[in-house]
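To the wet lab folks,

You asked to see what we're planning to order before we commit. Fair enough. Below is the target structure as tokens, and below that is the sequence we designed to fit it. If anything looks off to you, flag it before the synthesis order goes out.
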């Protein structure tokens, strides 16, 4: 029971809204928010850590990172699954801009 649960403002807001009966955000909007958060983490902190950390020591840590990111690795497979799912979605419909004429 020594595990700490990180409660974010978003999580707390959802609990409060659910308790008082407000409708929670839909899966589409929540999914886009979570995907954006994931992309922020991947493009920010992970990129920065890749540039600032040494990959020379800590053999078990390096080996585990390799197991996650190598082709066929745990994380690689999950990211590929995410890409496949995203590709299966319909494209955003683009609206044409312009003026109608009576000709």
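Sequence we intend to order:
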């Amino acid at each position: 029971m020594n595990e700490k649960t990180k409660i974010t403002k978003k999580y707390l807001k959802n609990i409060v809204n659910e308790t008082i009966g407000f409708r929670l955000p839909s899966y589409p909007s929540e999914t886009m928010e979570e995907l954006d958060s994931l992309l922020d983490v991947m493009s920010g902190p992970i990129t920065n850590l890749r540039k600032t950390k040494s990959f020379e020591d800590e053999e078990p840590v390096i080996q585990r990172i390799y197991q996650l990111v190598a082709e066929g690795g745990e994380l690689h497979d999950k990211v590929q699954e995410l890409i496949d799912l995203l590709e299966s979605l319909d494209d955003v419909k683009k609206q044409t801009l312009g003026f109608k004429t009576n000709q």
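Structural context that might help your review: Helices lie at 9-20, 27-52, 59-69, 74-88. Residues 27-86 form one domain.

Thanks,
Computational group
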